[in-house]
Design goal:
Radius of gyration: 25 Å
Number of strands: 0
Helix content: over 70%
Largest sheet: none
Structural class: mainly alpha
Number of helices: 15
């Protein structure tokens, strides 16, 4: 019996390793599919509401597609336009950096002629070409056409999921007993509630963080207010480090605009305090209590899915951990895993 147990354990480990490799290698397919499933859960209340009002299923799907397409297209357009504008503004910002270097040289009594000569001899345009900043940014974000292609793929997956969900569930339930049907329905209801509660609460917190951050960016006269707000909103969905990365963008822009000035200090302090207030005081009370996940579980999930799917995986890390915790609670054989995941 002990040998069989170890063999079963080894088979499970090997199977999980194979699944991870498949998810990593075929992320171009599984990422849109996962987002499609996520969007299906998010729009489930709207779908049920419209269906109860007698709206045909095809019309409900069209409404969902229109909302998703325009929302993500507008957000994507703003992000890509803002990033392109930031890249175009880099040569202008570098003039401010040159002036900052000269001011530092005067303050510390460095021979200004040597500093000026060194700085003026640099061909900044050639340096940007060598660094290929635009290519590096596009390599990270991808092209806008690639973004639209992934969005279209996600929408196609979602349409097929919504259209075939009821028939699929009927076929699955035919293979189950009444008790098994109740159990599976209970799991799906919990998953839907957890995902919707998490995303709704997280969206509210992220929106509040973004609006407050945009106000301070505007107050200190820093450029790219809308892009800063979008980054603060989107990256806040990445646990722990997303808000730090998002706050770095307006701070860097402020440095390029005004150098080491009171504006830079004021903006950095206000953004840090804003993130601390929402991230350590408000968000844990609203989000953490709903998910009932141990902080170490969120961190491990973040690292793992960042390795598998990159930044997209970091956004999905918490919902994945929450779904795993639900399955662990509902099956007796996974009680140990449930105890490890839970924050009780």
């Amino acid at each position: 019996m002990d040998n069989l147990r170890w063999i079963r354990f080894a088979v499970i480990v090997i199977a999980l390793a194979i699944v991870v490799v498949i998810l990593k290698e075929l992320k171009a397919v599984f990422v849109p599919l996962t987002f499609a499933l996520l969007l299906t859960f998010i729009f489930m209340p709207l779908q049920r509401f419209l269906r109860r009002r007698g709206v045909p299923g095809a019309v409900v799907v069209i409404i969902m597609v229109v909302i998703i397409f325009f929302t993500f297209t507008i957000a994507g357009t703003l992000v890509y336009t803002g990033v392109a504008s930031f890249i175009d503004a880099m040569p202008r910002f570098m003039n401010n950096v040159v002036q900052l270097a000269e001011d530092i040289a005067l303050r510390f009594e460095i021979p200004i002629e040597d500093v000026q000569k060194t700085i003026r001899e640099i061909d900044w345009t050639d340096m940007f070409d060598r660094f290929r900043l635009q290519d590096r940014v596009q390599g990270t974000l991808g092209t806008f056409a690639d973004f639209l292609l992934k969005l279209g793929t996600t929408i196609v997956f979602m349409v097929f999921i919504v259209a075939g969900r009821e028939r699929l569930l009927v076929r699955i339930y035919k293979t189950m007993t009444n008790k098994e049907q109740e159990h599976s329905q209970n799991i799906f209801i919990q998953i839907e509630e957890q995902i919707i509660k998490y995303l709704f609460t997280k969206s509210l917190v992220s929106l509040a963080t973004a609006l407050v951050g945009m106000f301070f960016v505007w107050l200190f006269g820093v450029e790219f207010v809308i892009v800063s707000g979008l980054l603060l909103f989107i990256l806040n969905f990445i646990p722990n480090i997303g808000s730090i990365i998002a706050s770095a963008f307006p701070i860097i822009v402020c440095f390029f605009q005004y150098g080491l000035s009171w504006r830079l200090v004021g903006l950095a302090v206000t953004l840090i305090l804003t993130q601390a207030a929402f991230g350590t005081l408000i968000e844990p009370r609203l989000v953490g209590s709903k998910l009932n996940l141990a902080p170490i579980v969120i961190l491990i999930s973040l690292i793992f899915w960042a390795w598998v799917w990159g930044p997209v995986g970091m956004v999905l890390a918490v919902p994945f951990a929450a779904v795993l915790a639900i399955f662990a609670r509902e099956f007796e054989s996974l009680k140990l895993l449930s105890a490890l995941l839970s924050d009780d």
